[in-house]
Amino acid sequence: MSVTHIIGAGLAGLSAAVAITYAGGRVKIYEASAMAGGRARSYHDKKLGIEIDNGNHMLLSGNHSAETYLRRIGAEHRFKSPKEAAFSFCDLSDKERFTIKLSNGFVPWWVLCAKSRVPHSKAKDYLALLSLLLADHNTKIGDIIPDNTALWRKLLDPFFVSVLNTPAKDGAACLAAAVIRETLMKGGKACIPRIAYPNLASSFIDPALDYLKARGVEVDYRNRLRQIHFSGQDVTSLEFAHQDIKLEKGDKVIIALPAWVVQSLIPDIETPDKYQAIINAHFLMKPTAAMPHIMGVVGGTADWIFTFENRISVTISAANHLLALEKEELVKRIWDDIQTVYAFKQDMPEWQVVTEKRATFEATVDQNNRRPPAVTAWNNLFLAGNWVRTGLPATIESAIRSGQTAADLALSHS
């Protein structure tokens, strides 16, 4: 029976492995590091003495590829979710607090209700989102949606920054439209936030590893791919740090590695080559019962504040502009935001900052147009990763969907 060799045990690689084994196929997984998860990993932080995530990630109930993946590995219940699609915000520029409450059905009744929509916004302002849905692949969000409205400043700008990990006005309109089609256009039932609890590994990674182990698949850790050997239209062998693997007839290869690594392995491939950072700060503090699990911040350094049983965590997207800042100054700004949002004053607890300098590709028109498809010029080689052409920005949903697409291609080429 043929084997699909999957290089990379991040979410894209694990998604591909789960999909193939679910269909009855055989896989082998190789990972260069000592742990699975890629950029959605959890680890024990010695400074804080607890398990933390390298970044805070939020799913929405409309993320159907992620739902399929979680259901297959038996982890669909390892999340905390409110009963309705309601998002709380605090605008630090005017100290205004508000909650966006989406109506459940397809008809956006919430836009017509002043108490449910963005303060100071008008129902007609939301029509700009319809124009976004008609955008082509060469249009920026800033070309379509005006940035001088309360809707833009208090909701759309922070929302698109978080989804695209790119300054909102520069973001590719087609990517923003794709997210809206799969969430807002389907009503509040597709927009309920889902937060991995207590951490990413327990929800996305460990259950997948258990699922695969039960089917005889284990990850070969600390085994870095050095070179791919080609002959004609096929991959013939894989050269790893500690072994060479010759492919048998019918074997396939799925490369689920970062774009900059793939560029060094596959000749003449075009991939995104500009990136944006994401900064996450974790504070060793038990939140109070009054603190929501997620809070949006407008006009501050922080973008989103998450609360967990033993920590408060902050995420800052499109964070390239903060990389030159000293950590102590950065964390002071973030702590000031937290104190203002939750209206308390106390000394800063123990903290940790995790910076992913190349967290995702810049979701601009130029960089989105550089994304390759999952298929390659070689018959038995396929690509997976949130930087592959999924039609979505570089989200967890995109990573998982790319793995499932690569798996489908590998299975169909049997």
Which key terms come to mind for this protein?
414 residues, alpha/beta, FAD/NAD(P)-binding domain, Polyamine Oxidase, Chain A, domain 2, 7-stranded mixed sheet, 5-stranded parallel sheet
Structure description:
This protein is an alpha/beta fold. The protein folds into 3 domains: 3-77 and 198-272 and 364-412, FAD/NAD(P)-binding domain (3-Layer(bba) Sandwich), CATH 3.50.50; 83-191, no CATH class; 275-361, Protoporphyrinogen oxidase, mitochondrial, domain 2 (Polyamine Oxidase, Chain A, domain 2). Helix content is 27%, strand content 24%. It has 10 helices and 20 strands. The chain has helices at residues 11-22, 64-73, 128-133, 150-164, 173-182, 200-213, 259-265, 327-342, 365-368, 396-412; strands at 3-7, 26-30, 42-45, 50-53, 58-60, 79-80, 86-91, 96-101, 193-196, 219-220, 225-231, 234-240, 244-246, 252-255, 275-283, 294-298, 304-307, 312-316, 351-361, 381-383. The strands form 5 sheets. A 7-stranded mixed beta sheet has the order 8-7-16-17-18-15-19, sandwiched between helices. Helix 2 packs across helix 10. The radius of gyration is 22 Å and the shape is globular. The chain starts with a strand and ends with a helix. The model has no long low-confidence stretch (mean pLDDT 96).
